Amino acid sequence: MCRIGAIKSKVPFHPSQALRLMLPQQEGHDNSGFAMVMQDLDGVFAGYKDKPLLSLACTAHGAKLAEEYMKAQNFVRDFEWVPKIDRRPGLDIKAMPLYMFRCYDYPEEYQNVSWQEKEELLLDTRLALRRLLEKDDQGYVFSFWPDVLTLKEIGDPSDIATYFRLWDDNGELMAKNVVTQCRQNTNYDIVRYAAHPFFIQGYTLCANGENTFYTKNTEYQRSLHRGYNGFESDSQNFLYTLHYVLHELKWPIKYFKHVITPLPFSEIEKRPDNKELTAIRQSLAHLEINGPNTIIAMLPDGRMMTCCDSKKLRPVVIGGDETTKAIASEVCGLNVVLPNRNPELDVYPNEREVVVITPELEVQRWKQ
Amino acid sequence: METIKTLDITFNDLNWKIEYSPERCTMCGSCVAVCSFQAIEAGVERHSKTVSTARQPEPVQQHKAVPVIKQVNGLANACVGCGMCEKVCPNRAIKPVRNENTRAGVLGRSGGTPIKRGGRNNLIKDNTLDKIVVGRISQMTDPSLDAERHTFDILAPFGRVLTPGELPFSTAGGELKLNSSTPPVNWIYPLIFSDMSVGALSTRAWEAICIATAYLNEKHNMPIRMCSGEGGMPVQLMKSEYLKYSIIQIASGHFGWNRIVKALPDMKVDPAGILIKIGQGAKPGDGGLLPAAKVAEHIQAIRGVPKADLLSPPNHQGLYSIEESVQKMHLSLNAAFKFRVPVAIKCSASATSVSVYNNLLRDPYKICGGFFLDGIQGGTGAANEVSLDHTGHPVVSKVRDCYQAAVKQGRQGQIPLWAGGGIGLTGNAAADAFKMICLGANGVFISKLLIQLCGCVGNEHGRCNACNTGKCPTGICSQDHRLVRRLDVDKAAQNIVEYMLAFDMELRKLMAPIGNSSLPVGRSDALVTTDKAMADKLSIQYAC
User: With an 8 Å Cβ cutoff, are A249 and B165 in contact?
Assistant: First the structure.
């Protein structure tokens, strides 16, 4: 089983906070990996917020391939941050030889194009790099997006943090938003791509649970968008559905919940918007999920969202103070990172509820 | 002494022999009275008997003329094995026995006409669906549901579903609004009482299914729909509120449509749908057939025809291509009901089904509201035996092929797939339906099972199958009022209702262990089979 978490703060914080959120919950996960997506970066990346940032784990040959490809596409490297590795013996980590975080300038011909065109370019570039590095297992591209950094590795989360020196709050790696998770997806093969959070075009998502409609979702999503690929985990379906509903269909955020866990027909009938909800349910029947799940999503504008399956078979709690909010599968995580918050204000969303944390840290909640 | 020639047809040439015990028989006559085929008659035989009538045993052998029940020789009155004689005999003195050495198949084509019968294919012995099991059980982190306590959303679409991008939505104030109408879609129970006409069925049998339909809807909140079959509907029903539970069929003979069209202005509610019948799984490429024997006066009235063999042409006249079919039939039928009623199409499963489905999926009018595929194991009231046994296509792999063709194009679910033809063949309709749904069907349709619940004794081993003769011994497939009176309408309706209640619970019992509260359409990962070839063909897991 997974445990998932996220922290959103008005002031930049270090990834060690995310680890502190997750480690108390380790009875529920299996300490088999660590993954996080950071958004709204600070520290060494503070000056490069508008430059697409490539998060890459690879071999030396993979690095060369990636560099050549980026050059050929006229991307110009502007900044690189390489974590200082702690190679002390005995750490439980299956590390890749190299980890690179590079900010690029857009190719000359893309300098003045619309954001929509840039979005497509960034996605296509990531997909191309992925295909390039997939051969002979030369590396993994987790994200290529402005102001977004992804780190994923297999092993014990504490050891992974030691390896990357994430425990050292040295001010280098900072962000206002982090979504994280401490388990490799063990339902399928242990591969880095199978670890959530997953990312596509500014949308980040991680999920705790089983998606029993994985086959249905996957078969449908494959034909919806070129970026919907991989499917190493049954949780990727949630991300692609989120991206499809918000980014492709451009529907308001509240309809995401109506797509993944539609109301029973008997309830839809009684609603004033029954025509719309019926149309959505029937047209997107193959994106419904029907297992136990909780998701945490981070949107391109920095909002965070969480909701559960329609039977609330997986828990989640949201809590915080005026500066920081956190979301976690279990309240023990919140108690460590936000010990002084008022726990009476914690929100335990029900099976029909959606909770959104705005960039101003306002907690919005509504029933679907 | 009776003279017999070797070419004379006697009862040992027939499919069924009557086994009779004169010593148990009291000559009550019940068996002769009940036999609608006049396959048995009362007669006299000369028997050698040892009798003793004195106080002390004084056995004497005598030759006596004994009244007996005899099987009638000849094909016209051949016993069909229905077993009514056995059912009514108070002394268990008589029963039909299958004749292993039958010559009926050879002799039955006398007069130069093909053998005709009703029922199902009698050659296919195994049931594909029984070789598949639900093998993906929710355990541990993914909990099974409780079939008794959880709520389940057991509904299927009937109607054309648009892609999300095609929905005429506008956004205002964080809300989506539908700006114009979309094709009608009715969400109904994933099992349809399939098309059997008034004519093929007796009025009582048809009525029993109507009663069961209404009862299930109104008392049990199960939105079951019943298809009229090709033959029209009673005008009173068309003018009643109950029309909403009916799917009206139009087939190549257009029988009954004169009355349907005339009733249009008086319809208080819309029917649940229209089903254009192109083909039937039991006799693909052949039109409907109602023998003159069954065209009773009331059938003539409903259909608007004289007493004659009613043969529907093999194809809808005037239809040259599928494009034309879509344009002419779909559009005109949609228009007739002002685009409020979904119009679907029923075809016999065929090697070409995927092409047909693809064409419908791609039609620019987006007007086909369902693709009903009828497999070789479907039943019929009358057909040439050569069609029944030797033409057709199994439905299981064909529905899967169609679903996968839709998946390839990202169009799954847009034209709902409904599967029939052998669903419930072994009595387990819920298991069959569930497996078909996992393979990609949205729902199933059944008919033979319904008449079996009304008392039909026919089976796939050549028993009875006399639906075409008008002599149905249970009064289901006959218009002879003496036979029809045998059918207890209320009991038949009750049987159907009870079966459907059990079906519903069994469906939950299959959804619960895979952790799904809504229908797992296309969840092929839930199925496994021990047959490798089947696993490969259906793209499901092989297990051993």
Answer: yes
- Determine which of A200-204, A242-246, B265-269, B292-296 has the lowest per-residue pLDDT on average: B292-296
Task: Identify the sign of the CA torsion B292, B294, B297, B301.
Answer: negative
Across the interface, of A251, A282, A313, the residue whose CB is closest to B176 is A251
| Residues B416-430 pLDDT 10s | 999 999 999 999 999
Residues of chain A contacting residue B408, judged by C-beta atoms under 8 Å apart = 223
Residues B284 and B326 in one domain: yes
B70 and B199 part of one domain: no
- Please name the residue that has the structure tokens 């039955």: B108
Distance between B429 CA and the closest CA of chain A, angstroms? 23
Distance from CA of B522 to the nearest CA of A (A): 6
Radius of gyration of chain B (CA): 26
Interchain contact B138–A (C-beta under 8 A): yes
Note whether A311 contacts B150, CB cutoff 8 Å. yes
Domain extent, residue B207, equals 131-161+187-542
Task: Spell out the SS3 assignment of B467-528.
Answer: HHHCCCCCCCCCCCHHHHCCCCHHHHHHHHHHHHHHHHHHHHHHHHHHCCCECCCCCHHHEE
The answer to whether residue B177 sits within a structural domain is no
Inspect the interface and report whether the beta carbons of B522 and A286 lie closer than 8 Å.
Answer: yes
Please tell me the pTM assigned to this model. 0.95
Per-residue model confidence (pLDDT) at position B521: 97
The CATH number of residue B374's host domain is: 3.20.20.70
- How near does any CA of chain A get to the CA of B140, in Å? 10
Tens-place pLDDT, residues B82-100? 999 999 999 999 999 999 9
Q: Are B244 and B142 part of one and the same domain?
A: yes
Inspect the interface and report whether the beta carbons of B521 and A311 lie closer than 8 Å: no
Q: Give how many domains chain B has, as a whole number.
A: 2
CB–CB of A234/A187 below 8 Å?
yes
Is B125 domain-assigned? no
Tell me, what's the pLDDT at B365?
A: 86
Contact between A202 and A147 under an 8 Å Cβ cutoff? The reply is: no
Q: Which residues contact A221 (CB under 8 A, 6 or more apart)?
A: A228, A231, A237, A240, A241, A244, A287
pLDDT at B496 (0 to 100)? 98
Q: Are residues B29 and B144 in the same domain?
A: no
Residue B172 covered by a domain: no
Asked if residue B49 has pLDDT above 90, the reply is no
pLDDT at A14: 96
How far apart (Å, rounded) are the C-alpha atoms in residues A65 and B349?
52
The residue in chain B having the minimum alpha-carbon distance to the alpha carbon of residue A312 is B143
* pLDDT tens-digit map of B127-159: 999 999 999 998 877 788 888 888 899 999 999
Instruction: Tell whether B541 lies on the interface with A, counting CB pairs under 8 A.
Output: no
B409: chain A residues, CB-CB within 8 Å: 223
Which residues fall within 8 angstroms of residue B483, CB to CB, at 6 or more apart?
Answer: B36, B202, B471, B472, B473, B474, B475
CA distance B520 to chain A (A): 8
Q: Of B176, B516, B525, which is closest to A255 when you measure between CB atoms?
A: B176
Is A273 in contact with B524 (Cβ distance < 8 A)? no
Residue B417 Cα distances to B21, B136, B438, angstroms: 53, 23, 12
For residues B472 and B482, give the distance between their C-alpha atoms in angstroms, rounded to a whole number: 11
Residue B63 pairs in a beta bridge with B48
What's the fold here for domain A4-367?
Answer: Glutamine Phosphoribosylpyrophosphate, subunit 1, domain 1 (3.60.20)
Chain B: give the shortest CA distance to residue A65, in Å.
33
Residue B227 amino acid letter: C
CB contact under 8 A, A264 and B151: yes
Contact B142 A213 (CB under 8 A): no
Over residues B285-292, the mean pLDDT reads: 86
Residue A361 pLDDT > 60: yes
* B2 located within any domain: no
Question: Residues of A with CB below 8 A from B153's CB?
Answer: 264-265
